[in-house]
Design brief:
Layout (H helix, E strand, L loop, with lengths): L2 E8 L5 H8 L6 E5 L13 H6 L9 E3 L4 E2 L29 E3 L2 E3 L6 H14 L2 E2 L24 H12 L5 E2 L2 E2 L31 H10 L4 E5 L2 E7 L6 E8 L2 E12 L3 H10 L24 E9 L11 E2 L16 E4 L5 H4 L12 H6 L1 E8 L8 E4 L5 E4 L5 H16 L12 E7 L42 E3 L14 H20 L1
Parallel strand pairs: 1-2, 1-13, 2-10, 3-19, 13-21
Antiparallel strand pairs: 3-4, 5-6, 7-9, 8-15, 11-12, 12-13, 14-17, 14-20, 16-17, 18-19
Helix pairs in contact: 1-5, 1-10, 3-10
Length: 522
């Protein structure tokens, strides 16, 4: 016997969790389906060996790459989705990212909505997720209707010195917008303690503004909202016409369960939501549910990302390192007319984490010494939507992720630009010379780039648009071909920009929630 709900939301991350929160006060019966469970609060949450080297909290699921080789995705299935482990950097896309942009490697297409359409929801998202920042510092920042709800997270001395050095070189460094529950004016009562285990770790003290803490748990305080964990959604079944989803088929604890919803929302992440629609093929949707356009699973994007270490003669005793960003080269430079991307920081690396993908050792440095003297940069450039970069499902039902990097020249130039900047630092007050002896490439996993398995910025697989021939979703993120199916994770992105997708997912979920409130009230 199926259980009936007004709204079924598949996934509890930035999209699904936020949507549940926004709809909870309607009184409608809302069901959240999550394939994972709550992350257990334990000391292991803060153990870099268990979290980074052993991947204690990562899925053990195996995907395939384009060559049929096993792919071990660095992703997480928990209440709160990947926000449980994100670095909480919450950027708005730039105004220009919503229009057509010419890159060295091709065209980044326009969105069917403008920045102004999403701006009020960005403001609400920043308020809901406790974003700290300062308007006007970022030279590429789009206009905003309100200040950040919280003051910027202060730089520790080594980062403050670097910020001043960048400014002396003519740049406009700025405080990274961060979603953390921090009160620096009253550290004694602040939920956040500015620890070194924020980026990539679950927060043991629930101070990170993740979807579980901010959205799911508050939503569940409403009696009309229910959460079922351990629920893998196998497929969606439709009516004979194919125009509406009639059943959500779930595998849970070895048994099949069925649920019915007037509205069904997929928010399992851009890879898993696409896989779900492809698994749900039927006579009316032979190529996958809502896939008459053929775009479901295609145009996968995940950014061109690198982690780079600048190893200095001066120690870097910084504990919380994610406070500084540089966007001066986001749209190019005087020497390069095309976009390059975004510079910021990862959480402070340590010797234990470095052992997971050790770089070439500088003479006289051990891994622990390298970590103690490193500045650990995160560089992001935009990759472009290529229909051949795609998610498929093989005959055994396994996810296949096919991806060939593109638009790489801008990223190479961004790396070169950072090396130049670090080579021009002011003289060290301790050693007399420049502190930064070299920029050593390091990847959190292997090599210099975040590899295919690093899918934290996944987006683009179920794009929205005005034309059903070239998109799967309409401007409200409803499937063109299925009247009660919506998608609110980053699947809907037509392009990826060059900043973290988290805040845009959250803002769009709030936008879609307004639409669904009207629909549910009708």
């Amino acid at each position: 016997m199926s259980q009936k709900y007004d709204v079924i939301i598949i996934g509890t991350g930035a999209g699904g969790g936020t949507l549940a929160y926004a709809l909870a006060s309607t009184g409608k019966r809302i069901l959240l389906l999550e394939r994972g469970d709550y992350v257990r609060r334990e000391k292991d949450n803060w153990d870099p060996r268990l979290v980074n080297l052993e991947g204690k909290y990562q899925t053990r699921e195996i995907w395939k790459d384009a060559d049929g080789k096993d792919l071990h995705p660095h992703t997480n299935y928990w209440v709160g989705g990947n926000t449980k482990f994100y670095g909480a950097a919450l950027f708005r896309l730039r105004r220009e990212d919503f229009g057509e942009l010419r890159h060295h490697g091709g065209i980044s297409p326009a969105w069917p909505i403008s920045y102004d359409d999403l701006e009020p929801h960005y403001t609400r998202a920043e308020q809901l997720y406790h974003v700290h920042g300062h308007r006007g510092e970022d030279p590429t920042e789009p206009p905003a209707s309100a200040p950040y709800p919280h003051p910027p997270v202060s730089h520790e001395p080594r980062l403050q010195q670097l910020s001043e050095d960048f400014a002396a070189q003519g740049l406009r460094p700025f405080h990274t917008p961060l979603g953390i529950q921090l009160d620096e004016s009253d550290p004694r009562t602040s939920t956040c303690v500015r620890c070194n285990t924020c980026d990539g770790f679950p927060c043991l003290v629930n101070a990170k503004a993740d979807a579980q803490v901010i959205a799911v748990d508050p939503a569940l305080r409403h009696s009309n909202v229910q959460l079922v964990t351990g629920a893998f959604v196998e497929r969606l079944e439709t009516s004979a016409s194919g125009r509406e989803v009639t059943k959500v088929i779930v595998q849970r604890e070895g048994a099949r369960e069925e649920y019915e919803g007037d509205v069904v929302v997929a928010s399992a992440g851009a890879i898993n939501s696409a896989a779900l629609l492809l698994r749900s093929a039927n006579d009316r949707h032979p190529d996958g549910l809502a896939n008459g356009s053929g775009v479901v699973g295609r145009h996968y994007m995940g950014h061109v990302n690198s982690v780079l270490m600048a190893v200095s003669l001066c120690a870097n005793p910084t504990v919380f390192q994610k406070s500084l960003s540089v966007n001066d080269f986001y749209f190019g430079s005087d020497e390069w007319e095309y976009p390059m991307g975004h510079m910021s920081f990862v959480g402070k690396l340590d010797g234990v984490t470095l052992r997971g993908g050790a770089p070439a050792i500088a003479p006289g440095f051990t891994l622990d010494a390298m970590a103690a003297h490193s500045l650990d940069f995160w560089l992001t450039s935009e990759d472009l939507p290529d229909p051949e970069n795609r998610v498929r499902v093989d005959r055994e039902g396994r996810i296949v992720l096919e991806y060939k990097p593109n638009n790489e020249e801008g990223h190479k130039r961004l790396i070169k630009k950072l090396k130049q900047l670090m080579g021009q630092q002011r003289k060290c007050p301790i050693h007399g010379g420049g502190c930064h002896q070299g920029l050593f490439a390091r990847n959190l996993y292997v090599g210099q780039r975040i590899p295919l398995a690093g899918v934290a910025h996944q987006n683009g697989t179920i794009r929205f648009g005005s034309d059903p021939r070239t998109s799967a979703l309409d401007v409200n993120c409803k499937a063109h071909e299925v009247d009660n199916l919506y998608v609110v994770d980053a699947s809907f992105f037509p392009s990826s920009g060059a900043v973290n997708p988290g805040l845009t997912i959250i803002a769009n979920a709030l936008r879609v929630a307004d639409h669904l409130r009207e629909r549910l009230a009708a």
